[in-house]
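The instructor's notes for this session suggest beginning with a concrete chain rather than abstract definitions. Hand out the sequence below and ask the class to guess, before any prediction is shown, which regions might be ordered.
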Amino acid sequence: MSRAALLATVLVGLAAPPAAADDPGAILLGALAVEAPAGLAPGGPLRVTLELHPAGVEKVATLRDWFPAARAVEGRVTVALAGRGPAAAAPVGEAQRGPTFLVDYDRPEAAAFRGAVEALGPRPGDEALARLVNGWIERKNYTRGIDSAARVAARREGDCTEHAVLLAAAARLAGRPARVVIGIALTAQGGALLGYGHAWTEIHDGAGWRAVDATPLPPGVRYLPLGALVDEGPGYLGAAWAALSPLDVRRVVVAPGP
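After discussion, reveal the predicted structure:
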């Protein structure tokens, strides 16, 4: 299967069977192979090595936005994951402050959602915005591709990509820069460490980009960002195809850090 065909399958969930409501992978972008020692404490510092397919080697430069000390050797890149997720020091662009073709919260279809954000008050916190988005998207499923914020607000359904886009809209409505990020979510389940391709939101706190997630995931999830969706114009879907970095990852090896 070609990269584009595999991506299309992952995005619309054609390869994913219906999942139980309590399954943390129910609306994520597919599972990745993770190798970790038995008994690894997932909440502590981790050393994560990504074994990349040849097409993924270009992601090393992107990873350094979050992990300046990332080490790359012969198709493998190793990073230190100290906390819940790293903060990036990338500058804020004007497109990350207001409505765009993708984060189109200014459209009439998003009027009810704009009202819901305004009802949170003048300075809602990140977690309040995430809870709003989680509750707004009532039907958690793979039936959508990557919908724009207005379409998500109107349809109220989707997977992690729709949660990420709508949360970016909510943050910008609240006056904070936000962007959509694609990467890997590491979760502990049944005594094993699992990895999923995932999309979430980063909100700028004045000092750096911080991970905020509206998708309901288990406590203790760790975020490994691999690329930010910088093109929010009419070609955003093609840009997302190029940025869906988990498809470039052959295997994830996790060990105790640093």
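Then share the key points. The two ends are 37 Å apart (CA to CA). The chain is about 25% helix and 25% strand.
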